[in-house]
Amino acid sequence: MAWEGWVAIVAGVLALVALALGLAAWRRVRDRRLVGWPDEDRPPGRHVAETVARDGTVLAFVANPTKPDVPALKVAIEHAAASQGLGVPLWFETTVEDPGVGQARTAVAAGADVVVAIGGDGTVRAVAEALVGTRVPMGIVPLGTGNLLARNLDLPVGDALAAIQVAVEGRDRTIDVGWLHVDRFDDEERELTDDVRDHLFLVIAGLGFDAAMVADTDETLKARVGWLAYFVAGFRHLHGARTRVRVRIDDQPAAGTRLRSILVGNCGRLPGGLTLLPDAVVDDGWLDVAAIDTRAGIAGWAQLFGEVVLQGVGVRNDLPAKIGRIDHTRARRVRIVVRGGEYAQVDGEVVGRVAEVSARVDPGALVVRVPAG
After folding, report:
1. Is 282 helix (H, G, I), strand (E, B) or coil?
2. Which pLDDT does position 197 carry in this prediction?
3. Least confident range of 16-25, 270-279, 352-361
4. CB 180 within 8 Å of CB 198
5. What is the pLDDT of residue 39?
6. Res 251: pLDDT
7. Angle at which helices 228-235 and 3-32 pack, to 10 degrees?
8. For position 62, what pLDDT does the model report?
């Protein structure tokens, strides 16, 4: 192996160790903040009471009960409402059969003024799907692995009390949503993935390396170390084959190329301070498209990682002779045909192995509560 490869491996290992130590420290702090576990200075729900007491506002919560913080949050929210003489807030829990769409629609039908998604990116996506076009604001209490939309909207991550306060007292912001429609599944996987509905995404949809990495991530490891589990899965796919695709941007002629991943995003910040789509704005009416390619094995991936880090701080490397590169463009509609089929994902959820998809932007379709400042 060339020296560049060994340098890339050592750098990657050191980065993972540092991230793991940081994540462990964050988890210790978070555990001390769990709502409903009182310390000397904070009885359960005391600060929550300050946020739920808004006259005439009907709050509804759609919570993923598999998240460990949810039972304590429910107790604290109900305690807060009772201490203020309010009615019991509407409370719905997701199920395997319905991850939140039906519950959020029921909340809207019951007259909810704000519907708060409590859980990970899957719960947020499901609640958002129900609220698109209703003008009912969505609050977010991020309790997941990636918490992608929360990070892009600068919502509190790791502090449920602060997130609830934003959901109740924050300002409304209208954002775009993306839709990924599967036009054709890969024949080998059709029996497992025959779901032709539109899949909503709020952050990034992708085909290729990123989706294969998500599909291969160990759920047990993800529960233990969070989003670092994606990096572990990613290492297993560094030497995967490049994918041959044809891409059509809006009304332009389709163009063929070979690449590792193609991303279609509404916004572009990821955990760990990485920014894949530096020009993406969540309410500009556009989708940002990134075609990612690498050559020369680990050395190419090392250069690509450097590209991502640099573009996150506003520095672009436009030199033509690169073994790892990201090409950016914008579109309102994107059509992608994949020779041989590839996995596709939306906001970290795999939708199956596909042969043809189309993505479109739905401008200003969703209202989200964000910090007032």
Report:
1. coil
2. 73
3. 16-25
4. yes
5. 39
6. 96
7. 160
8. 98
pLDDT of residue 224: 59
Domain with CATH 3.40.50.10330 in the chain: 33-169
Catalytic residue (one of 169, 219, 349, 356): 349
Domain with CATH 2.60.200.40 in the chain: 178-368
pLDDT confidence bin for 258, thresholds 50/70/90: confident
Does 319 have pLDDT greater than 60?
Answer: no
Cα separation of 236 and 247, whole Å?
Answer: 27
**CATH architecture classification, 178-368:** Sandwich (2.60)
Q: Residue 56 class from Cβ within 10 Å (0-12 exposed, 13-18 middle, 19+ buried)?
A: exposed
**239 pLDDT exceeds 60?**
no
Rounded-to-10 torsion of CA 358, 361, 367, 373: 120
Q: What angle do CA 143, 211, 241 make, to 5 degrees?
A: 150
CA distance 350 to 279: 25
Fold of 33-169: Rossmann fold (3.40.50)
Name the 3-class secondary structure at 119: strand
Q: How many residues does the chain have?
A: 373
Query: Is-catalytic flag, 349?
Result: yes
Range ranked top by mean pLDDT from 72-81, 91-100, 287-296: 91-100
In the prediction, which pLDDT does 340 show? 81
Residue 287 contacts by C-beta under 8 Å, 6 or more apart in sequence?
178, 264, 265, 266, 330, 331, 332, 334, 359, 360, 361
User: In the block, which residue shows the tokens 């490891």?
Assistant: 221
Which residues on neighbouring strands pair with residue 198, listed in sequence order?
181
Pick from 26, 114, 36, 31: which is nearest to 72 by CA? 36
Helices 3-32, 297-312: axis angle to 10 degrees equals 50
